[in-house]
Amino acid sequence: MRFLPIVDRELRVTARRRSTYTLRLLAAAAAFSIILWLCLFPTQGQPPADLGKSLFTALSILAFAYCLLVGPFMTADCISSEKREGTLGLLFLTDLRSFDVVLGKWAATSLAGFYGLLAVLPSLGIPVLLGGVTPGEYGRTALAVVNAILFSLTAGMLVSALNRDHTKTILGSLILVLALSGLLPGLMVLLFKGFWGRGIDGFPPVALLSPVYAAQFAVDSTFRSNPRLFWMSLGAVHAMSWLFVVGAIVIVTWVWRREPVERRESRLWLLRLGRTRRWQRRLQKRLAKNPIYALASRHRWPHWVFWALVGIVTIN
Fold first, then answer.
1. Which pTM does this prediction carry?
2. Where are the domains of the chain?
3. pLDDT by residue (tens digit) across 187-209?
């Protein structure tokens, strides 16, 4: 068997989809619209270097917003849909392993998102020609953007492995991405700055887990003061992304063996049919004598209704 066969197949299928190229076209059109707007309507007396810096900042914000939001809407349902349809276990009847399934589903849903980012990256380099942005700053920002989309897509896949419901997976992915990107590091910074009391000296290490902080450390002024923070944040986010992948593989290995019936439906069937040993023995005896009668009388509620009527008549 070939290495990662599902990845190979899903990449071929995704490459033939019209939506893959539509998203790439829309992303490039959005970046080009920002460039056209800022170049046609610049600030009065603004030098080209300042225009390039403003353009680079606007495109960077667009790229990071796209990267952080694309994961919850693309990969959040890649595994949960298989669990809802009850087809996840069928994949494991073949020679496929859990990492084949997870990486294959992830590649199928992530390719269009990566294509959209690749369409934006060349536009992000145009401000370098205008001045105000160094090639090093562009390269570091490009690395941070690629790292951010990897983080977002893997976070969505992890939540998809944990849930079955479509809405819950999307909301859970959004909460996870936004919490790690801004909420948790922001709270730690406020704590260290002394917003709720006496501040703590130093930089909060948990802020290095945020892709947004990696983008801030990529700016020339911040990078020159402490270049180690950028590489530490970049490595921490990248390592966390691969931990999400490993977590999804481990979860899928365990989850696919569970019954595809929802817990609420399981409780309803337990209430209707019963799962006690006595009830099962009685059902087996009825099946041996009269299968049609056994199937017709397997529900509990007719017996309850009968004895309830008997009790009411007896009391009256």
1. 0.73
2. 5-260, 276-315
3. 776 766 655 555 555 567 777 88
